[in-house]
Amino acid sequence: MTVTDSSTALSYGRALRKLYFTRFAFAILWVGIVFATSASASEPSALLTTLLVLYPLFDAAAVLWQLRADPDKERPKAAEWTNVVASAAVAVALGVVSSISVAGAVAVWGLWAIVAGVPQFVAAIRNRRSGGQVAQMLSGGISVLAGAAFLFQGLQGGGMISGPAGYAGVGAVFFLISAIRLSAKPKAQAA
Length: 191
Prior knowledge:
Number of domains: 1
Helix content: over 70%
Oligomer: single chain
Radius of gyration: 17 Å
Order of helices and strands: HHHHHH
Shape: elongated
Structural class: mainly alpha
């Protein structure tokens, strides 16, 4: 079955809309907790480590959910699987590094943003027929650029968790835009 079938594409668009609203809500909650508790942290803490591990684990789970919802079983999904594996590996790396150094955690976050941004961009291009993907394309591209900045800051011994938290907040906005766009698409098709 291909995504070109309009009812299948509409159904997948609804699934993506639900996923994007969920990702938006999670990211906003996560950002709020990080800013309230750890944004200016210069020393590692158990709470900071927990928060840093939780975000990429949620990302991996969300991409897995998206893979299961995708009706096009024929299309290669290497980009999405790369994102899942990278997010799971980064969760482990952040669990170790963030208990040693905040700058190291920022560097690992940056590497993850690069490695996850490219597949996000590719997946958004492939999912464009389902709608709401322009914001995801932009998010993937920005992720690569922001990731490079975080990686550089972390390797230089600088950076604070407020940077990755702000980045997650921007990502949340892109998920919201995509979800709203997907909400409007069925109404436009019905008219």
